[in-house]
Amino acid sequence: MFLDHFGLREQPFGVTPDPHFLYFSPSHLEALASLFYGIQSRRGFMALIAKPGMGKTTLLFHLLQHLRKSARTAFLFQRYSDARDFLRSLMSDLGVNGKDEDLGRMYGKFNEVLVREARAGRRVVVVIDEAQNLEDSVFETVRMLSNFEIPGMKLMQILLAGQPQLADKLASRNLVQLRQRISVLSRLTQFNSDDTAKYVGHRLQVAGHHGNPLFAPDALEIIHSRSEGIPRNINNLCFHALTLGFATGQKTIDASILSEVLEDLDIGMLGSGLCGRAGPGELTTQEELACPKWSGQTSISDNADLHSKISAADRPHSACQEEKSSTSDCGSWSASKWIGGVTHEQKC
């Protein structure tokens, strides 16, 4: 009933990474083109830096979709206790059994795989997401992977992706040798107001909406201001706004609905009240940690997971989704097309 009320086929503002809904802002377009070029030209190490909620993982999934026919890929995202744990997970993701072998044997078997893939004309691309969580010892293991090469060619392309803390780590003196090997550095920047409006419209269109805009201009202004141009926050606000609009029978989301949504999402109103009642110097150290100072904006980024089950349940299986969820059927793909602004939706 929710989807029918707004003329949608599926939930447009889900909380899980989905390349089907990927919107190419200028920084997303530039990052994708740079990373694709780095892989095609075998640059070795690359890095992608983005704040939480900027669609980094969705962009990585989209990149991997285009590489699977021409490359052997691995996607890693967990914490690893040591070099052996990391290498074992990497080999497993590439379909190589190294579970019961010591580190030396694992390196030997891994090198055999890389050489075999190179002789077959296939690249090996390793993506390490949330790389800011890696220990320095694991970073050193990652650096040593660059030693796998043959004359004139790196046998593996490695993409480190993470939050700004990753940039901090790479800038540290401990990782200077790894930093020197990074030849492509990309970043995702927050949306401006125009991109926020286009992003909302794009997701609604992919979800099946046609006709008059669902969000009034004043509502979009509030969404941009309070989301800080971060896609995850935009999704969260739009999901709640549509839910409230459906509950009240409204077809268009205006500023009044957004005001009520922001009030509902104000987690401070649900607290014990201790932070608001206590005067200067009246809180213990632990209480002060639990009562962060208000910055003038409501934080909503951590609220996205609260409704994950609701939005997932409200997203029915769609044959159209299956047809459009992959871009592999849209013909040849290259960085030049993305630089020229040709998106998946435009080409298909």
Strand and helix map with partners:
Elements (H helix, E strand, L loop, with lengths): L1 H5 L19 H15 L4 E6 L5 H12 L3 E6 L6 H11 L9 H17 L3 E6 L7 H9 L4 E2 L2 E2 L2 E6 L1 H7 L5 H6 E7 L4 H14 L10 H11 L3 H17 L7 H10 L9 H4 L7 H5 L18 H6 L5 H6 L10 H5 L4 H4 L1
Parallel strand pairs: 1-6, 1-7, 2-3, 3-6
Antiparallel strand pairs: 4-5
Helix pairs in contact: 4-5, 10-11, 10-12, 11-12
- In which range does the helix fraction lie? 40-55%
CATH superfamily of the largest domain: P-loop containing nucleotide triphosphate hydrolases
Strand content: 5-15%
Point out poorly predicted stretches: 283-348
Instruction: Using the coordinates shown, work out and report the CATH topology of the largest domain.
Output: Rossmann fold
For the sheet with most strands, the description reads: 5 strands, parallel
- Number of DSSP strands? 7
Order of helices and strands: HHEHEHHEHEEEHHEHHHHHHHHHH
The domain count comes to 2
CATH level-1 class of the largest domain: Alpha Beta
Gross geometry: elongated
Biggest sheet: strand arrangement:
2-3-6-1-7
Work out the radius of gyration: 23 Å
Protein architecture, described:
The structure is a single chain. α11 packs across α12. With 348 residues, this protein is an alpha/beta fold. It contains 18 helices and seven strands. It is elongated and about 65 Å long. It folds into two domains: 110 residues, Orthogonal Bundle (Helicase, Ruva Protein, domain 3), CATH 1.10.8; 163 residues, Rossmann fold (3-Layer(aba) Sandwich), CATH 3.40.50.
